[in-house]
Amino acid sequence: MSWGQNTHKREDELKAAGEYGRRTEPLPDIHLHAVLTAGDADFGDELRDRRARQEHLEREIISLGRRLAAPLNDDKPKRRWFSRGRKGEKS
Amino acid sequence: MAMSYSSMVGDDQRQEISTNYLASQRAARFRPYYFGAIVFTVVVAFAALFVDYMIVTEFWTRALSNEFLELPGTLAGSVAFKSLQVLFATLAAHIFIEQMSGFGRAVFVRALFILALTMLGGVGMLLALMSLPAGMADAGLGGPGASLGSALSSLGIETEAAREAVVAQSSLQEMQAYQPVFWMASLSVIFLVVTGVAALFLHYALNNLRKLFETRDFAERKADMARLAALEAEYARNREQLIDMERTDYRRNALWTRLMDNCRAYESGLEGSRAQPVSNRRMLALPAPGRRRRDAASADVRNGQLQACADSQKIARYEGVFEDWWARRQRMSQTDPAAYDRSGEVLPPLDGAKVFAFSKTVKAAE
Question: What's the predicted TM-score (pTM) here?
Answer without folding.
Answer: 0.60
